[in-house]
Inverse folding.
């Protein structure tokens, strides 16, 4: 379980094919030496398990299902990635409850610089429209964000300068794919309403 508060922007030191299906990533970051085997770390919002580590890097593997549902397959050597270690019972929930289970990928359709921050618009498959609500939470690239506006199968998030500088969002351009995880509580509500034959309140 995570909170959507990025702890560090790491760098992919090596990306290689794994058994002609999955991929293996060696990630360079400042906390690598304190990792442990089987630790859960969210990479751009996708939960991965540490399989090896050194003083400077840790290694994870992405299986085919992960590559199908996330942007992990697009990572290359040198890619900048958002990292968050799993929360503990002593941790405060600074963002919102995030599972690290990416639902879908969306496409950035616009990035607008305002006087203070940035507005990013993202389009996603229309069948997931009932998963978002204005002023609700969404996880994008592992970042806990608030939906500022919604327009059918697209939404806008407002990015403050600190988040812009301390995540990989500043590396993004229009047309890039981003990992999206909808609010877990909202997903259970939608599932329940669907099970009793009510698609909306």
């Amino acid at each position: 379980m995570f909170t959507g508060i990025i702890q560090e922007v790491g760098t992919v030191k090596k990306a290689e094919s794994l058994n002609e299906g999955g991929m293996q990533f060696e990630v360079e970051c400042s906390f690598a030496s304190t990792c442990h085997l089987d630790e859960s770390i969210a990479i751009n919002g996708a939960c991965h398990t540490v399989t090896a580590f050194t003083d400077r890097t840790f290694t994870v593997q992405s299986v085919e299902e992960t590559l199908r549902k996330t942007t992990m397959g697009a990572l290359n050597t040198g890619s900048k990635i958002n990292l968050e270690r799993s929360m503990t019972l002593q941790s405060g929930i600074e963002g919102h409850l995030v599972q690290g289970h990416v639902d879908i990928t969306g496409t950035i359709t616009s990035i607008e610089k305002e006087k203070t921050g940035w507005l990013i618009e993202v389009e996603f498959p229309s069948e997931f429209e009932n998963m978002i609500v204005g002023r609700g939470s969404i996880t994008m690239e592992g970042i806990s964000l608030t939906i500022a506006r919604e327009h059918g199968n697209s939404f806008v998030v407002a990015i403050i300068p600190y988040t812009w500088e301390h995540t990989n969002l500043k590396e993004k351009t229009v047309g890039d794919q981003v990992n999206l995880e909808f609010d877990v509580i909202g997903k259970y509500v939608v599932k329940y309403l669907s099970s009793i034959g009510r698609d909306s309140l």
In short: The chain has a mean pLDDT of 94. The longest helix spans residues 184-195.
